[in-house]
Amino acid sequence: MIKKLKRRLVLLVLVGLLLASAGLVAAINWINWQGLCRQAEAVLDTLEATGGLRPLRSDYGRQEIEPPDGKIERELRDGRDAGRRREDSAVQDAADLSNFYTVQLDGQGSIIAWTSDRTDLYDDDTIQTLVDAVLASGKTTGRVGSQFFRRTVQEKGSLLIVLDATLELQSARRVLRLTLLVALAEDLLLSLGAVWLIRRMVRPVDEAMEKQKQFVWDASHELKTPLAVISANAEALAGEVGESKPLEYIQSEVQRTDQLIQSLLTLARMERGTVQASHAPMDLSRTLLSVALPFESAVFEAGKTMETDIPDGIRYTGDAAMIQQLCVILLSNAEKYSDPGGSIRLSLEAKGDKRVIRVHNTGPAIPKEAQSRIFDRFYRVDSSHNREIPGNGLGLSIAQSIVQAHKGKITVQSAPGQGTTFTVTL
Predict the structure, then answer these.
(1) Domains in the chain, ordered, with CATH?
(2) What pTM was computed for the model?
């Protein structure tokens, strides 16, 4: 149980870290992409205003000789320069932009001419492919691959301005790769730290559970000796005084306590790992029938009916003794909790490499809130009917341990009017 808790906590932390990192990476790259798109739109605006020509770089580094006593003139000039810098920011970006080209189109969309200050990068086929894609889109502005375009209508056709943002997209991809690597490295480091912290946090609980298991083991062994003495003396006393109600009560309680101790020892052995499930080939059909057939007489004496649906020859690799004990627990549970005159059904089914065992009984349904706890040790459904039925609440816990030792799964389905079905998948 502690191992399962650790795994769940680690999984929860890992999922949280991955979601947080994915959100952060997505946000960073979305902001970067939006900035790239805004910059491309601003450059296209500038190129449209200049008729598709690259603006000249503004020379803000020039120095002028200040005239004597020219404080007022200097302040006016500085103000004009500052305003000019703000107004020409888009022009400055356009002067620094990546490659672009302009295409003159006629009224039918055919290319009249195209120009670029980097004609070595483009040819007629490349331009024609881009023009076809733009015309097919039916848009006046947008993006085709790494090419941002703007098409403006003129008197005798249209002017297509294309900004080649290949370098910018490569830079964006580098940012994406970098953020992913950083996020993965961060997740790895934080995950290692989280695992270390979880182990530290769970260690006291783990130690308490180990002490509890050791106590159950020691107490069960210590109780066996005085219980054997009580049982032996009760039998000797019964031989001397004959039948006696007090002696019957003593022997009945001794027997019930002995069953409880044996169940506790079985659970303790499984949890300590001293009892391991052997994995040997066996005839699962015969194994179940060896339990079901003798059990039919007990069911008949209780005034109930039992049927089996076990096909011949179903094989399985597992521990035959444990499977028999599992079947005994489920059938005993079904017999105890079925209604008077009710029925019990044991079935076996092969589904591919899986083996499915079902034990169904008619009778009162297990409440929904109790179904999630039905396999907890010492847990019994709180009802007056169940309190009259003998038991210690350990049978289903042992059944679950047997199923887990075979890497299987056990579930329960119960509803009013439909009875209760325990399903074991091995």
Answers:
(1) 99-164 (3.40.1840), 280-425 (3.30.565.10)
(2) 0.51
